[in-house]
Amino acid sequence: MNLQPFLTSFNEAGCDEAGRGCLAGPVVAAAVILPEGYQNDKLDDSKKISEKNRNELRIDIEKKAVAIGIGIVNERKIEKINILQASLLAMHIAVKNLKILPSHLAIDGNKFNPYPKINHTCVIKGDGKYMNIAAASIIAKTTRDKIMKKLSESDPEYLWNQNKGYPTKKHREAISRFGITIHHRKSFKLT
User: 72, CA 20 to 30 Å: which among 22, 27, 64, 148?
Assistant: First the structure.
């Protein structure tokens, strides 16, 4: 994939989230500052890449990134503030968890609550346009997938190790059969 290196400048953090459309589990965001000159031909929007390649990319990104921050907002908070606000909060937490202050934030999507003292630009489908946003999408998705696989150990009937909490037919059938867990988002249409 031929992604652009930066939207504005070096030391820019790309930000993205994973799990907005899920029925269960947290929403996870990542902020990633890549080094100048970073290249990886496999890097793309996490939704377009196989799980195996996402995990390989994660290792490369973790090894080479200038900084990575992760933000997690659980299902109870999602219920209180809604999924959009939870996603934006997760991005803020991810930026806060960066070990260095970025010069600019490149945000995937069209909405963001301004972060104090850092300018931002929203980019629709930015995870398919800019390397730092794509890297953030990989980190957010693989982090969330690990969480859902772990949660699947105590609730295997929902197949979260496979569906990662997304609204698949089998996930909805499991909800109808077994009811909901503490990890389900009760305000979502679950069945």
Answer: 64
